[in-house]
Amino acid sequence: MTFGQWFSFRGRIGRKVFWLGYVLPLFLASLVAAVLDAAIGLAPTGDAMPVDAATMGPFSAVVSLLSIWPSLAGTIKRLHDRDRSGWWIGAFYLLAIVVGAVAGVMAATMPYSPEAMAVPLIVGGLLVLGFALWLLVETGFLRGTAGPNRFGPDPLGGQGMAQWQQQPAPGWQQQPQQWQQPQWTPPQGQGGYPPQGWQPPPQQGYPPPQQGYPPPQQGYGAPPPGYGQPPPGYGQPPQPPPGQWGGPGQGGSVPPVRRD
To answer: Biased-composition ranges for Pro residues (predicted)?
Structure first.
């Protein structure tokens, strides 16, 4: 992480970078500033300081002011890693300001009624505390979304699908690719020609899939031979059996003649 990325509000960071890259350096800087204030004697200690005096020395005050921007940057990028907007940290500070303003107004208008101020201050304090605990768990202990999200790629290298990617419409099916016959390449012999007696190997695998219905055979739909023609002898008188006279002009044997 570069120095510019450390101050940037864009992108995502994991829990390890948040604790080791933001929380630990800022805590060490505050500790060193407090030690310097105490060593030089600039830090107010004991009962010597008045009630309304500042509770930190000049070194601690400068470090606290300089820590505002990087602390916001680290917290916002951890919220991005959880796929949450960085404005949640703004909502937390807004809630704290509102509760503090309400407490100030109530202290100014009701200085002698601590019982009336107790319930609103307790409720406001619990809201701020609950919000702070939620931010601590979200930014410090929970893993970010797996894969890229709307704020950038996964800092841990997850390959999950981006949540904002459009899903295919219901019922959509990918068009099948056209089948191609595999091509056989003959081995190269001397002069670039295949060796003598080489034959291509037999076709292996499944034949190409048929598309559509097979074409009809030749003569499909034509009537069979003799369809619609009368059978042989249709419309002619039946022939008498052999040996019987069938009448004049019908052939057959001559009728017997009686002779007295």
So the answer is: 197-243
Q: Domain segments of the chain: what residues? A: 3-47+56-140
Lowest mean pLDDT among 25-39, 97-111, 136-150: 97-111
| DSSP state string for 131-186 | HHHHHHHHHHTS---SS-BTTBS-TT---PPPTTSPPPPTT--PPPPPP-PPPP-P
Please count the other Cβ atoms lying within 10 Å of the Cβ belonging to residue 24.
11
84: pLDDT strictly greater than 90: yes
Task: Determine the residue type at 234.
Answer: Y
Measured CA to CA, the distance from residue 128 to residue 136 in angstroms comes to 12
Judge contact between 29 and 63, C-beta under 8 A: yes
Nearest to 207 by CA among 184, 179, 183, 185: 179
Contacts of 146 (CB under 8 A, 6+ apart): 154, 158, 160
Using alpha carbons only, give the angle 186, 187, 189 rounded to the nearest 5 degrees: 125
- Would you tell me how many other CB atoms lie within 10 Å of the CB of residue 9? 13
Left, alpha or beta for 2 (phi > 0: left; psi -120 to 50: alpha)? Answer: beta
User: Strand pairing partners for 152?
Assistant: 149
Q: Which tokens in the block code for residue 189? A: 């012999």
First to last CA, the chain: 148
Q: Is the dihedral of CA 10, 16, 19, 25 positive or negative?
A: negative
Give dist(CA 106, CA 118) in Å, integer: 10
pTM: 0.58
